[in-house]
Amino acid sequence: MDALPDEVLSHVFSRITSTADRNSLALSCKRCHHVERLQRWSLRLGCGLHPVDEALVRLCKRFSNLVSVEISYLGWMSNQGRQLDDQGLALLSENCRLLTTLKLSYCCFITDTGLGNLGRSSNLEVLTLNFIPRISGIGMLSLVTCCSKIKELELDRCMHVDRVEWLEHLGAEGRLENLFIRNCRGVGELDLAGLDWGWSSLRRLVFEVDGSNYRFLKEFGNAGVCGIDVNSESLQLLVLTNCVVTPRRGLSSVLARCSSALVDVELNMCLGLRDEQLIALAETCSQLKSLTLRLSSLFEGSTRITDASFCALATHCVFLEKACIGFSSGEFHFVTVAGLALVIQGCCFLKELVLENVGCFNDEGMEAVCSSGSLETLELVVCGQVGDKGISGLACSKLRKLRLCRCSGITGTGFNSLAGRSPKLNVLEVENCPRVVIDSLEGVASTLRYKQS
Known about the structure:
single chain; alpha/beta; Monooxygenase; 16 helices; Leu-rich_rpt; COI1 F-box domain-containing protein; COI1_F-box; Leu-rich_rpt_Cys-con_subtyp
């Protein structure tokens, strides 16, 4: 060990991914301790950080090359000592000059003052704030004004963050590439217009709002009246949850302006989604590789999706590799098994299919699965129309993983015909299917997971 140059020893440490192994090796001798100290780029801290200010300063001085810090107080109780507060963020900014990535979770004592102190971290590029209840839009504005290099921002359950001045500043800077906003009640669909020119540089957008009935009624009265006009041609990932997307209202223009750069789309319980929007999306985004579509039957009158949308997907999105389709209840009257079969058979690169609460999917749809030349993973959740005939037909399919959850139409008889006849099926998961007993699954797959509540 003594004969090894520092460069070689540093390379050894860089290949060790386990934190426990790195700590053990660092304690073996002073030289290893010194090298490991310089090789530590990231740090994850939690409730054991006590006393918080002193411990944080010591850690920052020991690991002088830190670029990523994560602090989480999940499960914290008052008898575990004081949490990180505004003063702690000031110390972090002063003693960790190379910091580029920071994630704060469940820090209940950080206020707008703390965000202002964090503004001293001029190299900050990635910031995640998860359940920081005492910050507001004023603190966010002071932060983004000082930290001009931010490329990725994630806000989750920051209930008092409102106003749009901080979004306007990020848009004017034009550096923001990834924006994730989840369950921040003060930020609505129309507020995203504040990004303005910043939309042209945005690559990944995740926007999720409160899905309660109260929220729907309130937002449909606002975002349902008017919409925003944005340029979303650079988006590669788009995730919208509980958003208003009625044509010419809410975030409909985000869908309308997407280009062939888009490869991953998730539309979860969006209000007002129509056939013409999905058809236009399929025609424009021909390189789409992943699609998640969850529809709410509660607002079925305003959400009009039919087999025509799935026909467009099968025709234009031939490179689709993963499709997840789900309904909030088993009945969605405008979608039939024929439309789903078009996607399964038309998308020749489709490898993974997930169907949740799709009441129309039956043994006829399973025939399409069996005839697919690319499908490797199939998950059926609450698909009660699938029976033993559909399961037994999987013997000639190319499936490697099959997961069934709460499928009441399937019995052990369907699996009896698969035993020894499905060599490619590696993983079989059966969960809460009341008519399937574990004895009937023997020999069907090399790995079996069975659960019955």
